[in-house]
Amino acid sequence: MDLLELQSLLSWLTALPPATLLLAMGLLAAAENVFPPIPADMLIALGAFLAARADASPWPSYLVVLGGNVAGAMVMYAIGRRFGADWTERKFHLKHKETADVALSRWYARYGLASLFLGRFIPGVRAIVAPFAGALRAPVVGTTAAILGASAFWYGLVTIIAFRAGNNWEELVRLIGRLGQTSGLLAVGIITLVAALWWRHRRKRA
Length: 206
Fold this sequence. Notes:
By secondary structure, this protein is mostly helical. Helix content is 79%, strand content 0%. It has ten helices and no strands. The chain is globular and about 60 Å long. The chain starts with a helix and ends with a helix.
């Protein structure tokens, strides 16, 4: 989706009545896991931004988008568990780097559910986390907790920033984009640090 289409969709959303707006945000957040019409973090930012301008609470939109996004992810988990990650990626045209599935497989073998949590922060990996977890028969409860925890943390951070941003929506969009890049780098850094500590521990035991 280009910038003009994004702005058009955002304008359409802001013209909706509050109850309809929340419903639309939840559905769009769920759809992000299949064909992202708009990033869920942008929906979160929009909800918090509008709440701040109306002197209302940002948390209803936070909960709706969080619930919709996690529900959509678990649908993809179920599909991945039934048909496999490769089929799911091809069927739904999930875009990711060529090595993303290899990296996620290696991380899961070493770190288990923690790799699913961190993978949701990394661009190019987050889209395949849920179907990949399903294909690997990762525990339903553990996978849900990992995806919910990662999404709740990230969306909560975006909500707080957007609610306090003031009236400059364009600057807010740029800030959220920079935060998305930073979150990916942070997750990679954590994985690298854990890997280094694990390797050092193995050497000491040997």
